[in-house]
Amino acid sequence: MQQTVESNKTLLVDGPASVRLVSGKAEVFSYKIKEASRIVVREGKRLPFFVLEKAVFDVSLGVNASIEETAGSTIPESWNKPFEAVLGVQKKPVVVLVVGTIDSGKSSFCTYIVNKLVNAKCRVAVLDGDLGQSDIGPSGTVGYALTSKQVTDLYNLKLENAFFVGVTSPISAIAKTIEGLAAMKAEILAKQVDFVVVNTDGW
Fold first, then answer.
1. What is the pLDDT of residues 118-168, one digit of tens each?
2. Which is deepest, 13, 32, 36, 97, by most CB within 10 Å?
3. Total H helices, total E strands in the chain
4. What would the pLDDT profile of 62-113 be if each residue is shown by its tens digit?
5. Strand 195-199 and strand 124-128: pairing?
6. 19, 58 contact by CB (below 8 A)
7. Strands, DSSP E only, in 62-103?
């Protein structure tokens, strides 16, 4: 189905769904979408398509998927402050540790920060320490990816390497989880990146 959305509005899409920008201008987590490109929204995930210029979307919805329009942007203004703070740090590499409770938007915030850093021509790595809801590596692992391109979902990043912890919650393997994070961080830093964005477990 086609959905027309006026400028300065957000189309919220809950997956599983597929969205194609037919015309207009829109962005997801500061990633400007190209016309005719198709974006997949995974089951259990929500993506906010903020419309910069009146846009027409071609939307295909899967089982239990939904769409909703809302005024303005759903990205909080406060998200830009930490980005400006880390970008202003002169000594590289900079490690950005993102913490928060379960389902508080950590992965979305990480995606936003990564996109803003990539747009600023920075060399970025993402270290995924969320054992139970890993976006980059298999469940039960600590994995990382390098990127020079913006993404709508951390899941789309290519896994470089992972450390097997073997559980989906760090509560039963705290030492091994920390060992994995430290090992992957050391490997990342050897690749001479500017920023390491670390997504953590809600625990």
1. 999 999 999 999 998 889 989 999 999 999 999 999 999 999 999 999 999
2. 13
3. 3, 12
4. 999 999 999 999 999 999 999 999 999 999 999 999 998 877 889 999 999 9
5. parallel
6. yes
7. 66-71, 94-98
